[in-house]
Design a protein that fits this description.
This protein is of the alpha+beta class. Helices cover 39% and strands 30% of the residues. The chain is built from two helices and three strands. Helix 1 crosses helix 2.
């Protein structure tokens, strides 16, 4: 999680692919692909991961939240470009 820099979604008419970029090695970033997701699942996963990236950059502590509130907050953070 520490080195995930961004998430990208590519779609076809029925399915989506989620590409997660890990920049552990700056010159040669690794890209993990999760294929054959339903489009709404890929969008939700992207929002959650983007929310985690934003929260980490802003040093937000989610340790005291329950899982439902955490998911809602991460999706909200993932929908915005900046905190």
């Amino acid at each position: 999680m520490d080195n995930i820099t961004d998430v990208e979604i590519t779609t076809s008419p029925f399915f989506a692919t989620l590409k997660i970029r890990d920049a552990s090695y700056y010159r040669y970033p690794r890209i993990f692909k999760v294929r054959l997701l339903k489009i709404h699942e890929a969008l939700e996963a992207s929002r959650l991961i983007q929310g985690l990236i934003s929260a980490k950059k802003a040093f937000i502590d989610f340790s005291n939240l329950n899982l439902k509130v955490l998911k809602e907050d991460l999706e909200l953070l993932g929908d915005t470009d900046e905190i």
